[in-house]
Write a structure and sequence with these properties.
about 160 residues; alpha+beta; CBS-domain; three-stranded mixed beta sheet; two-stranded antiparallel ribbon; 7 helices; elongated
Amino acid sequence: MKVSDILRVKGGTLFTVQADEPLARAMNDMAEKDIGSLVVMSHGSLVGMLTFREVIRQLVKNGGQIGQTLVQEAMDATPQTCTSDNDIDEVRRMMLEHHARYMPIMDGAMLMGVISFYDVAKAVVESQDFENKMLKAYIRDWPDGSAQEAEREKS
């Protein structure tokens, strides 16, 4: 299974924020939209990711205050990315290795979407469920030994 398969099911809705916007505004957007991440853009290019992890770190750093903090001060400026051609198992390993809950999907310099660890886990479970159903159907249709014996005797 490829990342493109997840994007096809998930859809192309993207939530972004500018690097020079106030962090408080980004936090409000995340809360209102009930999302865990925003892709940080500057001049049409991806420059970072803002997740609740970065927001909490910034809050702790600022003694519980956001004040005039800008998104660029809190964001992860080097997020892991992948392409829509990446295999989902490879992406799952990358996400686990880097503790990334969200991963931007890039096509060159163009942002194609974002997938979450939840999206990846859901796709894997659905794929395994399908395989299990196919295997169970195959086993139910397995010919018994007596039918095979009768065919051999006829020959």
